[in-house]
Amino acid sequence: MKLRHLLSIVCGGLWLIMSLPLQAALTIQITEGVVGAMPIAIVPFDNSTLKSPLPYNLSDIITTDLGRSGRFAPMPEQDLIARPHDGSAVRFADWRLLNMESLVVGRLRELGGARYEVQFQLFDVFKGEQLAGYSIAFAADDVRRTAHRISDLIYEKLTGQRGAFSTRIAYITAIKAADKSREYRLSIADADGFNEQVILDSKQPLMSPSWSPDGEKLVYVTFESGRPEIFVQEVFSGERRRITDFPGLNNAPVWSPDGRYLAMTLSKTGNPEVHTYNLQTGALSQVTRHPGIDTEPNWSPDGRKLVFTSDRGGRPQLYMVNMSGANKSGQPQRLTFEGEYNSRGTFSPDGQRLAMVHGQQGAFRIAVLELASRNLQVLTDSRLDESPSFAPNGSMIIYATESQNRGVLAAVSVDGRVHQRLELQQGDVREPAWSPFSTQ
Amino acid sequence: MKTLSRLSIVLLPVMLFAGCESLGTQEGATVEDRGTIAEGAEGAEGAQARGARAGTAFEGHPLEDPASLLSQRVIYFDFDSASIRAADRPVLQAHAEYLAGHGAATVSLEGHTDERGSREYNIALGERRAKAVRQLLLFQGASPVQLETVSFGEERPLADGHDESAWQQNRRVEINYKTR
């Protein structure tokens, strides 16, 4: 009995060390304006029947989520003219006077055994109609996740587009110690920067995290042996395995949309070439064959195209090749002609756009190329932007930049109108990879 | 035997760097002569001559002689380029000759880039730089088994800044002797 008690303390302690979330390790600031955002009032949910308050306030999280999407302008809490908790108490005329288009009300109740239930309703203020009403049961340590689910439901109802608030980001942090040695970390966090968990650390560089399509694994590059190797790691168990350690480069791994292959850059032939790798058989297929640099492959969402960076034309530019399964079919075609440097192309979830690092006159920015029109739009205006990654609903692009001599993450809406920055407490943050939608 | 004599030709300047005591004064005099001749000859020969003069004063391993070209272990590059600058060729020739003369010596050639552009492209660029140095060392007498290359791209900068002076220090290949 005593031993068991002790064990549970030890195990509990270990669990704490391993998964202690660094609260608000990333703080998000909207740095540039939101024009034409939809006014919405979110009334704090009634929690008067709870014996003790929840660790987080649901309506605060929902307000922040919707606000940082850039599509909504939530009313500040102090401006709320009334605090109804269900539809029968709502006087729509009052909210109409304030030009609110939507209203969210709700209440919380205890289910016992550290479980709770939230009931909420979303209203169209002008029509005075309920657009959605849900009740969701959740555990005390799932408050944030539940709030993000509610944000997703509201976002989808009002924009017609699936919300991405319940997704995660993976990223690399480099921390320089006083003795100038560096520590490299691979972390995952909620899309709002909370619940950071370090899933790998190393004294040698870590690079290029990329999610599996089911969101349960990450593939990345580690230099822990002194040379680059590609590993796949289960996000939840931490279990991992080495995929390749060929002589030369083992770099730039990305998953195919069907989850069966990786595309990667190997230089075992003497030169960096894009290859595909069959995760089941280990079979390799060489995609590029050129004495220049070919790297940074990225699959189109339908798996039928691969975009990559090549300097075969003298400077790095994006090229695209058709794929038939793991094999190329046909010759690569050059995609980018504007700017001296275009690299790290990544497809939007609908396959109609490519985000990239766009270098012109010494500044490196994030740009988006419309594939149909070949129209290129530069979205950012700093000088050291890199590693663009689309939100799974295509609404935002997260990327790495430099601010006050530190590597930070930033996000921009796909139309370039909404800019936000995610500040980390320490180190240089880089290489953000936005997860796919959760399959759970 | 034939191999040995060929080796000694290559070795000669290397021994001079070492200021090898057993060679005696006569050998030392030869050095001075070569040095004098080298003044008017091409740059690479002149480079050896400087090493030789220092050799008489410096006691220790030739790789540690601060006056020797061998003490230069970093080669710098232009942006998005793997071309070896003319000024660095004598340095690489000195290393190639040292390696040719010390069959057991091995080096790791570490390619690095500045932070601009994308990280994975920079890894490939760093490898290209390391391989450019490797190619020149091979051409000048080093053996493939003595040389390995690895690229760290922009992941391990020497200088932390975000301006051209930091970037120039970071665009480099480091010649790291693993065995001497």
Task: Give an overview in words.
The complex is a heterodimer of chains A (440) and B (180). Chain A has two domains: 3-26 and 168-434, TolB, C-terminal domain (Neuraminidase, 6 Propeller), CATH 2.120.10; 38-159, TolB, N-terminal domain (Rossmann fold). In chain A, helix 2 (58-68) crosses helix 4. In chain A, the strands form seven sheets. In chain A, strands 1-29-28-27-26 form a five-stranded antiparallel β-sheet, with no helix packed on it. Chain A has a five-stranded mixed β-sheet with strand order 3-2-4-5-6, covered by helices on one side. Chain A has a four-stranded antiparallel β-sheet with strand order 9-8-7-30, with no helix packed on it. Chain A is mainly beta and 440 residues long. Chain A has four helices and 30 strands. Chain B is of the alpha+beta class. Chain B has a single domain (2-23, 73-179), classed as 60s Ribosomal Protein L30, Chain: A. Chain B is 50% helix and 14% strand. Chain B has helices spanning 2-18, 24-40, 43-57, 89-101, 119-139, 164-170, and strands spanning 74-76, 106-112, 147-153, 172-179. A four-stranded mixed β-sheet of chain B has the order 1-4-2-3. Chain B is globular and about 40 Å long. Chain B starts with a helix and ends with a strand. Mean pLDDT of chain B is 77; it is low at 1-52. The chains are: A mainly beta (440), B alpha+beta (180). Chains A and B meet through strand 22 of A and helix 5 and strand 3 of B.
State mean pLDDT of chain B (0 to 100 scale). 77
The largest sheet of chain A, given as strand count, sense and whether it forms a barrel, is: 5 strands, antiparallel
Widest beta sheet: strand line-up of chain B: 1-4-2-3
The CATH topology name of chain B reads 60s Ribosomal Protein L30, Chain: A
Strand content of chain B: 5-15%
How is the CATH topology of the largest domain in chain A named? Neuraminidase
CATH homologous superfamily annotation of the largest domain in chain A: TolB, C-terminal domain
Note the total helix count of chain B: 6
The number of domains of chain A? 2
CATH architecture descriptor name of the largest domain in chain A: 6 Propeller
